[in-house]
Structure formats: C-alpha cells, structure tokens
Amino acid sequence: MSTPATAPHADREAGESSPCIWLFDWLTDEHDAILDRLTAEVLGELPELAFAPRRPEVHVREAIGAHLGTLRHVLSQPGDVRQVMLPAVFDDYTRRLARDETPPLPVLLRSFDKIHANFWEQLLAALHSTQRRVGGQHRAELLEFTSSRLFQYFHSVATQTARAYEAARSLHQMRNAAARHQVVTRVLAGEVEQGEAELLLRHEFNTTQIAYVATFDDHDLADRLDTTLSHLGGRLGARHHLAMRGPDGCYGWFSPLRENWRDAVRDLPVPEAVLVCLGAPHEGLPGFRQSRAEALEGRRIAGAAGRGGVVLFEEVAHLALATRDLAGAKALVERELGRLGVGEDEVTQRLLDTLRVYLDELASPTRTARRMYVHPNTVIKRLERIEEYLGRPISSNSLNLRMAVELAPLVRAM
User: Fold this and answer.
1) Distances from the Cα of 121 to the Cαs of 38, 110, 151, in angstroms?
2) Tell me: the pLDDT tens digits for 180-199?
C-alpha cells in the first residue's frame, strides 16, 4: 500500500492555509480514533459485513484501515487528482469477497457510503474542536477541498470495486460451471460412484428425479428461458434443481416430483422458439443417466417434427424407438401410406393432417371436422381422396397405419 510517511509540510503557521497539511496532521494524530469510529459505524449499520467465521470485526477494521491509509495519501496531495489508483490489496480483497458473493456487491458499495458519511462527520467535529480550530476563510477552503477530494475518491473506489467484483464473480461462476460440467460428464459416463457424485454435485440421487433439455433459437431468449425453467420447477413441485448451461440452452435435473406433475407441465407457457424436453422420472444414479438420455431422445424427435413448447419423452417414446431403425421406419411409411407419405405439397400435407386427426378422433368425421374447423362434408371428401391415395379403405384399427402417419413427417426430416 502506498501511504506517505511525511506530509508536504512548510511550517505549522503556513499549514493553517493548506488543507493538505491540516488533513494530514489530523489523520496522522487521530488515526486510531477515526478508524475505531468508522469500524463501529459500518458494522452497526451493515452487519452483513461481519461474515468472517472468527473475529469478523478484525477483517472489517483492516479493510477500513487500508481505505483510511489511502485516503490520507489522497487528501495530502495538492493539485487535481484525476484518477485514484487503488493499491493491489483492494483488488485482491474484492475478488476474494466476490468468489463467495459474501457480502453481496450492493452491501459492499453501501459500506463506502457509510465510511464517506461518517468520515465527513468526524471531520466537521474536528474543525469545531478547540485543539484544531481553523479560521473561517481557511475552514471554507478546507471543506471545499475535502468535499471534492472525498467525492472523487469514493466514486473511484465504488467504480473500481464494482468492476473488479463483477469480473471476479463471472470468472468464478465460469470456473465453477466448467468444473461442474466436467463432473456431470463423468457421472453420465459411469466414471463416478453415487456417493462421490452426490458429494461433488450436491445432488441427491435416491429420490424421484427428471431430466430436461431446453434449447432456443434466439439468444435474446436466454433470460426468458431461466424464467420458464423456474416456473417448470414450480409446476413439478421440485425442491432441488441441478442446472447446466450450454451454448444453445441448458439441461439439468429436477427433484423430487409431485404426483400430478404431468398435468401441471402440459400447459406451461413457453416462449416461441423455445423447446423443453423432459425425460421420464427415475431414481438412483442409473435413473439420472436414463432420464437424461430420454430427454435427448425427446429433443431429437421434437426437432425433426419442428415442435416447440414442452415435450414429454413418454409421449414420443414409440417414435424414438421406431426411428432408431430409420430405414425400417421409411419402409413402413412407404408401405402404409404410399404417395401420401412422401408428398410434400400443400394438398398432400392437408390430407395427411386430416388422416392423423381422423385416427385420433376414433374415426369420427364429425369430431374431426370440429377439431379442424371445417364442415363434416369437407372431411368426408378428404377421406375419399385419402383412400384413393392409399388404394384401399382406411383401417382405423391398424396400428401400422397409425404409426406410419406419425412417422411420415419425421422420416422426411431425418
């Protein structure tokens, strides 16, 4: 720390006309008393600063003492001080606090306000004391000088501290995220036992847990995705959330789950261009891996189908299994749907959509028309056209036909 050993003295009588000399003498002679009052004031107003496990007041006093030493240097320099250069100890101290976010940055910045205000109060009291009384003209000059210099100092301190704190916190979070990602990768690869995994990730495995994969097309949606995941955790009834962030979204696990979680998440509001895929719920370390694999499979199917919103693996598991053998899936589509399965024109797609709804509605033209917002006669004419494409009557009980209808848009996209 750079603190002058001696003031730029002339003599005591000339010093009365120099704010620098008066301030240096006062800060030197009353150093301990000033420091005691500043420490008591700050700890009394901001108890969050007393974060050290043993004798926290010592740490706070040392930090304020470093500020006081730098202030003595700043206030004893005549002329304009354009930039206050803080000693490296402040930067190291700030970065150490930022690693644990203890105290939070707003509390740290408020402590500067408290030091500033209390220091000013002590200065005014000293000016009115009989031992250090200063004449009116010199007092005005001293107050003007000190007010300006204090403002410069604390403004610079706050700015540099905020910058160093945020930089250190970002770096720490990045390092933590990278380390945690490495642990999760090893856990998923089966390289870590459950006890060690729980210790490293602080995640309990012997409870019902569900994995998710959330992606977005627009990076401006990152903040909204965080909100969506927060709402998702609430709908699931989860108390724990292990989250990992990637370049195009994030993935993680929620646990435990409420009984009716499926109904709760189906109508979850999700921003457009955001996809959230959930694996099935499982327990234990094998379930941790299985649910993650299912969430990825759900994303694969949803991506091929161009779907967004919330997708449950349980609802697309049959499609995931069928498309593992893509050649077999394509053969099934061609065999069951013929031209209807390979055509990409608007008419063919409309007929395929009608067939899908017709099968969903248990072969009811009326319900199909109501769901598609068309007249029942329109549905009947489309069904006749569909049968022409198929070359046979529609068999609403055929599992192969239902599977082919669902697979058709997927095999075209894969």
Assistant:
1) 10, 17, 14
2) 889 999 999 999 999 999 98
